[in-house]
Amino acid sequence: MKKLICAKDIEALGKQGKKVCPVDSDTLITPSAKDAAKACGISFSSVSGNCCESSPAASSACESGIDSELIYTVLKAMMDKGLLKDVIDQAPDQPYVAEKDCGGYKLVRGKTVKLDVFDTGIPENQVYYQELFGVPDKCPMSSGILSFDGKSRFDIDALYDELYYVIDGVVSITVNGKTFTAYGGDQFYIPNGASVTWASPDKAKLFYATFPAIA
Predict the structure, then answer these.
(1) Res. 174: pLDDT tops 90
(2) DSSP output for the chain
(3) Same domain, 129 and 206
(4) What is the spatial distance between Cα 40 and Cα 83, in angstroms, rounded to a whole number?
(5) Are residue 105 and residue 168 in the same domain, yes or no?
(6) Is pLDDT at 57 greater than 50 in this prediction?
(7) Residue of 12, 69, 3, 68 whose CA lies nearest to 40
(8) Whether residue 121 is found in the same domain as residue 205
(9) What is the mean pLDDT of residues 37-57?
(10) How many CB atoms lie within 10 A of CB 39?
(11) CA 193 to each of CA 27, 88, 159, 204, 213: distance values in angstroms, whole numbers, following the listed order
């Protein structure tokens, strides 16, 4: 079985005052272990045995198998080669987790979506949204989630052709003086240029799509 030497093993040897880490043909040394050895003035010697036999602390670390040091090294190498960039995008500051490929495919994990405040100009309103597809994805249309977390009402002019699907809740849309009420499962279209009054008596959640993509 291959034996792994990681940075913590070298650090353990350094604390013991060791200057040589014995290795053999079955020993794997991580890049960070080599850096640590250089910093501690420890050299690797090709003899029978290995550093884990000289250090109880290191032995415990190696017996557990592949550790976070090796995982980090592998992931970093993949990132440096750009192998992860187009596969998964889930940085802590991102509003959602998405899986992509270089051909334009994108899958958004709905349960990870974080909504931002939709500024209606009325502080009392509780309206939120998150755009999921659009210009950054080189998509000809935009789509996302619109959410009402409480009683809200506001006026807005449609700047795009807009389609909506009510996931749950109730919303009313007043267009040209006529009010339409939409419930969970309903869909509606708002043409570009329409002046609309939105209202919701309570919570509601909608999926929207616009054309062209919101710039």
Answers:
(1) yes
(2) --EEE-HHHHHHHHHTT--EEEE-TTEEE-HHHHHHHHHHT-EEEESSS-HHHH-HHHHHHHHT-S-HHHHHHHHHHHHHTTTTTTTEE--TTSSSEEEE-TTS-EEEEGGG---EE---S-TT--EEEEEEESGGGT-SSEEEEEEEES-EEEEEE--SEEEEEEEEEEEEEEETTEEEEEETT-EEEE-TT-EEEEEESSEEEEEEEEES---
(3) yes
(4) 33
(5) no
(6) no
(7) 12
(8) yes
(9) 64
(10) 12
(11) 70, 37, 6, 24, 15
Q: Within 13 Å of residue 213, how many CA atoms lie on the same side as its CB? A: 13
Same domain, 48 and 90: no
Same domain, 63 and 103: no
Residue whose token pair is 């550093």: 51
Rounded to the nearest 5°, which phi and psi values hold at 32?
Answer: -70, -30
- CA distances 48 to 20, 23, 133, Å, are 13, 7, 58
Residue 207 and residue 121 share a domain: yes
The tokens describing 86, both together, are 């187009």
Task: For 90-140, write each residue's pLDDT tens digit.
Answer: 556 789 999 988 888 999 999 999 999 999 999 999 999 999 999 999 999
- Please tell me the total count of domains within the chain: 3
Amino acid at 118: F
The token pair that represents 57 in the structure block: 């602390």
At 103, give phi and psi (nearest 5°). -85, 0
Domain that holds residue 29: 3-79
